Amino acid sequence: QVQLVESGGGLVQAGESLRLSCAASRTIFSIVAMGWYRQAPGKERELVATITDTYSANYADSVKGRFTISRDNAKNTVSLQMNSLKPEDTAVYYCNAYYRGMHYWGKGTLVTVSS
Known about the structure:
Layout: E1 4-7, E2 10-13, E3 18-24, E4 33-39, E5 46-52, E6 57-59, E7 67-72, E8 77-82, E9 91-99, E10 102-105, E11 109-114
């Protein structure tokens, strides 16, 4: 099992920045892929960004150029730097780990962006 705990969410104004962090209960060195997803009320959960064990990053078109995902294997954390936030970024953000054929999820952290 992999336990994930997100932090860093909050209320910000459009154009501001936030940095989300995800702490894993075990080393992430061997976890092939980790990422961030988000879900707004009444909408489906969607992929925001992923990063592999080889540090290859992938982003949703809606966040390209604004968000940056990173991983720190030594600290067992994955972060999401979110710049130029927009109201449509408002959602609960979930950390995800794909490990040994299974997906693991954190409980989420709320990001609210006001106009």
